[in-house]
Q: What sequence folds into this?
């Protein structure tokens, strides 16, 4: 029979082993294995739906069914990209996901029974996409560069031009834009945008736009 001292030593040894096993940290998967498990984007639903494409950006384009390497596309000064098999599509001010679905619809209308189009932003441009012009009742009239990789709107442009002058008509700010169909005029209520947070009324600007802030009628 084991002596009482021997039994105590055995129990102490077993207890220390049990405590050590409980204290041992659980092994977690490494960062590399976590990244590799996600893999590359294979579904159009996973594409970027928030970042807007700008003039000068470099995009990666691939049709999954072709099983070929991605093609590099550059957004030209007109805001378009040359899509294989299709020709030019408007890309500026759209997200990679929106552009991919535009290309998918066009490809499936005549070239493919099914086209899984993957488009991603490879490299952002560091150059301004162009200039807009401000005149009328603003504190600083003249040209204003559109910042690269930024969505410049009417209200933001006016604020960067020092804001409205004292007699500005903030409700009827006009934006004059040249289009292939001719000149188009938008009327923007900047007073509502700034005072009532109506961002949905704030018009995004493109290169060459002219902002004219008229004077309000003054009754004596």
A:
């Amino acid at each position: 029979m084991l002596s009482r001292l021997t039994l105590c030593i055995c129990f102490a040894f077993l207890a220390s082993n049990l405590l050590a096993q409980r204290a041992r940290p659980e092994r977690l998967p490494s960062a590399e294995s976590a990244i590799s498990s996600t893999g590359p984007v294979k579904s159009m639903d996973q594409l970027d739906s928030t970042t807007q494409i700008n003039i000068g950006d470099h995009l990666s384009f691939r049709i999954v069914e072709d099983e070929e390497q991605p093609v590099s596309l550059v957004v030209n000064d007109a805001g378009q990209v040359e899509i294989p098999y299709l020709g030019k599509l408007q890309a500026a001010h759209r997200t990679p996901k929106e552009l991919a679905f535009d290309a998918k619809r066009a490809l499936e209308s005549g070239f493919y029974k099914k086209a899984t189009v993957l488009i991603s932003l490879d490299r952002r441009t560091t150059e301004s996409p162009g200039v807009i012009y401000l005149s009328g009742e603003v504190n600083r009239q003249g040209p204003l560069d559109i910042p690269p990789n930024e969505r410049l709107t009417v209200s933001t442009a006016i604020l960067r031009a020092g804001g409205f002058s004292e007699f500005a008509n903030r409700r009827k700010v006009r934006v004059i834009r040249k289009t292939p169909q001719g000149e188009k005029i938008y009327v923007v209520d900047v007073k509502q945008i700034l005072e009532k947070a109506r961002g949905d009324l704030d018009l995004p600007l493109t290169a060459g736009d002219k902002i004219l802030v008229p004077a309000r009628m003054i009754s004596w």
User: Anything to note?
Assistant: Confidence is low (pLDDT under 50) at residues 5-16, 18-39.
